[in-house]
Amino acid sequence: MDTPLSTVAVVGLGTMGTGIAEVLARAGREVIGIDISEEAARLAVSSLEASTARAVERGRITDEERRDALARFRTFSDLQAASDADLVIEVVHESYEAKQQVIHALDAIVRPTTVLATGTNALSVTRLAADSAHPERVLGMHFFNPAPAMKLVEIVSSVLTAPQAVDAVTALARELGKEPVAVGDRPGFVADGLLFGYLNQAASMYEAKYASREDIDAAMRLGCGLPMGPLALLDLIGIDTARTVLDAMYAESHDRLHAPAPILKQLSEAGLSGRKSGRGFYTYEAPGSQTVARDALTPLESATATPGRPVRSVGVAGSGTMASGIAEVFAKAGYDVVLAARSQEKADRAKARIAKSLARSVDKGRMTSEAREETLGRVTPAGSLDAFSDVDLAVEAVAEDLAVKQELFATLDKVCKPGAVLATTTSSLPVVACARATSRPQDVIGMHFFNPAPAMKLVEVVRTVLTSDAVHSTVREVCVKIRKHPVDCGDRAGFIVNALLFPYLNNAVKMVEQHYATLDDIDAAMKLGGGYPMGPFELLDVVGLDVSLAIQKVLHGEFRDPGLAPAPLLEHLVAAGCLGRKTGRGFREYAGR
User: Is 142 considered catalytic here?
Assistant: First the structure.
């Protein structure tokens, strides 16, 4: 098995198989494309011709390189064509029966030294290998869609796989310009193992009518920096494929987080599998189109809402980074802002933080010195909440402690004028508990900004069962004026973003606990395979392990799902004082705090 894998057969010329064939042909490999459908083979050739033509237009390859790549790709309808291959990659239908038929047939066709790779993302590689005449040469080679663009390749070995086979395909992946990550055999491997649990929870959230599909997707794009929202991603992947992956994961884990949401079954059995069918969570202009079409669930832009209350001045309570960031956002939008802290000194320091932030904006050419002075002049620091007597909107950004917030809201109830909107920026506490500390719970709402507030575009607007329509409309109007994107959600733990983000982070910690993969491999897998701006352990260390643990405990306490119980490793690190970057050590060590 010390072959250089110069001739590779790809069995199954659907989207993934065609993409893999293109990667191989452009990297100088002789590629044998095999599909029982002559139409699929024809489309694969057309796809390679079109993609390489675009590459020439963009200056990425020359005409000669394009001709050579096209000459290296040949298509056949019979598996016998794979007889001289050094490596066969199968990407046929995601079922044991289909894949086992291919592997059995190849056993009688290819040389004993030929490596057989399955492209499965859900099925057991061990089970597929065990049915082969040469199980030691069978492994998983999981590319991500679209294969030409995505850098990650998960190399999946079973207890039967020969190390030489793993070494050979790992070297090939690197020569193809990919980043290979070695993983063991479990459903979903690393990237899909974490990704599909998150997607499943998003589907359940939508099914429960907790938030609209547009708001769920916008929340995760803007709140986490993801390239796509979860429901749009499910439509891209294929709802039937997602259901298959989740069924396989649940069969092994028995974790309720992996039990496919009923809506996935309903949509897939109705043939509404996403983009490829023209309809899934969204409706598309045509099957295969990426253009979303308006349907009965699309929000009406001209929908009339209850008129909001006028807001001219805003009070921000707190002296930390979040409070000063929110005050800066409102001042930039032209509002007069009262920034109140527990002392005048703390309020002055908070305003000084805003001054530094605005100075950086001037240095970067984002605003003029005149605009900086005007913005800063709109911020009035105060050492007492009494200064909120005339504000139209009061936003608290104090410690994430319910008793502290309730005491503050009781004070706001006394000092704020009738009709003022009272908002909390809590990320994990019940908004209604803050509302009940006042005599006017109908005026209380959640405005969950994300850190850093000046940069992050998302605000989760959290109304309780007591919040009035006018207050809800007021806050949504204000969000638009301060150039933030509001998403509506109900008053339950985690709202949208944290309810989907932190279980994903917790599951990543469990993978490390189980010695399934390393921190570096998991981080690389999610950045390269999932398009995440940061790996889960990079993010945990930035957010703070203590903050992450607190939110995970709140989620577990509210939903009572055993799968949401905080990972013991996370609890141990927090108990040891390893809280992430702020302490110099979390999942990784840092040179300084």
Answer: no
